[in-house]
Structure formats: C-alpha cells, structure tokens
Amino acid sequence: DTWNAIQELLFDDDAKAFVEIAKDAGVPAPDEDNIGYEVEGNDGEVVATVEIAWPDRKIGFMTAEQAEDQEKIETLGWKILNLLDAADMNIGAAVSESACIATGSAR
To answer: For the whole model, what pTM was predicted?
Structure first.
C-alpha cells in the first residue's frame, strides 16, 4: 500500500514512527511526491522542507533537523505535527480538519 511505499522512502526514525501512527489511525497517505516536500514562500523561493506533507491542507510532519524552519512555514499557514501531537490526538481527524490542529514542537 501507499504508506508502506512511503516508509521505504524515509530514513528518519521519527518520520517512520509518524507513518505507523498515521497508518494505524486510518489517515489517507499523501502522494509519494509529497515526501520531502519543498515549501515555497511568497517569492517562490524554497523556505523549508517538510518530510511528510499534505500540501492541499497545508499540514505536515518535519524531522528534528527540518523543524528549525517550522516557524517560517507556519507563517505561511502550515500546521506542523510532531510525534507527541500524533500520539496525543486523533491524527485522522487532524488531517481531515486542519483547523483543529494544535501545533507546537517538543524538540
């Protein structure tokens, strides 16, 4: 299935754990092209990379290394989930209803 194919593309352990949580919660898998998704700012320049992204909903998961750019893309309207968010909430509803997502980094 698509989640398994996505997991094969990932190297980060937290990203792999996020996939397991999302898959178990019944979250629809993003398109494989949205793994390592580059978010562009208003000027068309890449401002951040999101490890696992649903760009149509502006929701994603960033690795610890990528999270240094989290504030930049949150100002563009993105909601970034981390493992604590995923474990503590109904991630399926979060991805379906992006307005209800609590953001914040535990890194």
So the answer is: 0.81
